[in-house]
Amino acid sequence: xxxxxxxxxxxxxxxxxxxxxxxxxxxxxxxxxxxxxxxxxxxxxxxxxxxxxxxxxxxxxxxxxxxxxxxxxxxxxxxxxxxxxxxxxxxxxxxxxxxxxxxxxxxxxxxxxxxxxxxxxxxxxxxxxxxxxxxxxxxxxxxxxxxxxxxxxxxxxxxxxxxxxxxxxxxxxxxxxxxxxxxxxxxxxxxxxxxxxxxxxxxxxxxxxxxxxxxxxxxxx
Length: 221
What we know:
The protein is mainly alpha-helical. Helix content is 87%, strand content 0%. It is elongated, with a radius of gyration of 28 Å.
């Protein structure tokens, strides 16, 4: 009976130690999860800032070359202002993988900073007012800002759509092997509809960016 009591006491102590170790393990897992989440947020923020900074720098260089240096038609500047943010945003994986809410904040700031700095350069060189003075100029500023912001969003949506399309086709390649022909055909039809829906978002954003950037020029304002 004494041995049984001692063994029971030892088992209870062992269970207590196991419970304490389990609590420590759960706490360590929670800490690692928080650190991983913070690291991921930090990478996303760094990627978005890098993307926005690179787009801003390239837009200012293009503006200087097209407008100040070579005095090229403004249409080419507006087209380049759409192409550059799209290419940069879709090229940096840590940028387009970041949450869309972050891009919805950064995109307008990128447009505002780009247009204001371009206007500042023109103001210093040509000795003209920096800020718009007429209602038409205000609308043109707003449209140019919207164009750059939509171009950034279009680049994000394009990269995500292509990535999801490739991942989905790779993931579903094995499913079709064990699927009946009719079910396979129906499933492929659903995938095509979904892919078209995903492709429509970047196309609409790109069209909106081009429309906002070129509308004032096309109508002769």
